[in-house]
Amino acid sequence: MSDRPTGTAADYWRANVRLLLKLLVVWFVVSYLCGILLVDVLNAFSIGGYPLGYFFAQQGSIYVFLFLIFFYAWRMNKLDREFGVAEKE
Fold it and tell me: Which residue ranges does the record assign to the Sodium symporter small subunit domain (predicted)?
């Protein structure tokens, strides 16, 4: 992989916004749909003795949010290298 930028600032921003929108959709689905609207459907299943809807509302969404943070950091580092704006190591 070369150190040359592969796109313009507009392309970089577009890729950043596209990533953010995808992650926000996941965040919405996990927190709002799984934790609030679909709780009755999810409560038919259980994890560790707790109903799945309760688990998503209390613990599962936190795990997903932590994953989203680490995924975003990893993916943005990759985008930074791709567009030639990465910090020097």
Answer: 10-85
Q: Which two tokens stand for residue 4?
A: 């040359």
| 19, 52, 57, 70 from 29: Cα distances, Å | 16, 15, 12, 18
pTM as predicted: 0.78
With CA atoms as reference, report the closest residue to 6 among 81, 72, 73, 86: 81
Q: Which two structure tokens, joined as six digits, stand for 80?
A: 């930074």
Tell me the C-alpha to C-alpha distance, in Å, between residue 1 and each of 6, 8, 9, 24, 75: 11, 17, 19, 30, 16
The pLDDT value recorded for residue 1 is 46
